[in-house]
């Protein structure tokens, strides 16, 4: 059994192509990345702590520059992995970055609002 060509049996809504979807998802990635960074630093400013041990260490050691480098590394890994996929499956990469960063930003907003 092969999945080759399976994507073409399923159309995206409207005239959305995989390329259009991927472009949209990359925009969501950068919005989610910004939201996560801003809400993280707002939370830190009001006295909350970073729960991710890797991010906490980077922030404590290098501040905002470290956090930006950490996010850039994640995006870089995603871009490299993207090259391994066929064009129609590439939207999974930005989706895989955007979903956890959006979830983190939402959780940060909730935590900040609970602390105020």
From TrEMBL:
The record's section on InterPro entries has: DUF5658
Give start and end of each DUF5658 domain: 29-112
From the record, give the transmembrane residue ranges.
24-44, 64-85, 91-110
Q: Which UniProt keywords apply?
A: Membrane, Transmembrane, Transmembrane helix
Q: Matching Pfam families, A to Z?
A: DUF5658
Coiled coil region boundaries: none
From which domain of life does this come?
Archaea
Name of the protein described by the UniProt record:
DUF5658 domain-containing protein
Native species: Natrinema pallidum DSM 3751
């Amino acid at each position: 059994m092969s999945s080759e060509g399976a994507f073409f049996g399923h159309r995206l809504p409207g005239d959305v192509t995989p390329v259009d979807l991927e472009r949209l998802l990359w925009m969501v990635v950068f919005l989610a990345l910004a939201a996560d960074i801003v809400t993280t630093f707002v939370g830190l400013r009001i006295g909350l702590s970073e729960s991710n041990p890797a991010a906490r260490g980077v922030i404590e050691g290098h501040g905002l520059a470290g956090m930006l480098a950490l996010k850039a590394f994640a995006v870089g890994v995603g871009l490299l992995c993207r090259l391994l996929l066929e064009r129609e499956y590439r939207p999974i990469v930005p989706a895989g970055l955007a979903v956890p960063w959006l979830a983190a930003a939402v959780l940060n907003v909730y935590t900040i609002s609970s602390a105020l």
